[in-house]
Amino acid sequence: MTNLTITVDARTLKRARMRALEEDTSVNAVLRDYLEEYAGYRRERREAGWKLLELSRNLGAGSGGKGLPKREELYDREIARNRSSGPL
User: Fold this and answer.
1) Residue-wise pLDDT tens digits, 50-61
2) How far is CA 11 from CA 19, 33, 35, in A?
3) HSE, side-chain direction, 13 A CA sphere, residue 88
4) What is residue 81's predicted lDDT score, i.e. its pLDDT?
5) Which of 6, 32, 51, 57 has a CA between 20 and 30 Å from the CA of residue 80?
6) CA dist., res. 48 & res. 54, Å (int)
7) What's the pTM value of the predicted model, to 2 decimals?
8) Residues 6+ apart with CB under 8 A from 34
9) How many CA atoms lie within 13 A of 14 on its CB side?
10) How far, in Å, CA of 55 to CA of 57, rounded?
């Protein structure tokens, strides 16, 4: 990370520190978040997340709304039966 020096009047900085304290953050974190948004990093991350979700939908990797199988269903599959009867 790189340091950034800005000039702001004392009254504004005091009010910003008080508000940041109320929001359980710091002026530094607020400015960093703002600059990331301004530079487009957050937008790029959001868009990448949406693309990932779209890819997962298109691959059909979900359960099709069936939910997860029950434990009994997992152990009743052929692969589980073959492992229980064979050597480990």
Assistant:
1) 898 888 778 876
2) 12, 22, 22
3) 1
4) 62
5) 57
6) 10
7) 0.49
8) none
9) 3
10) 5
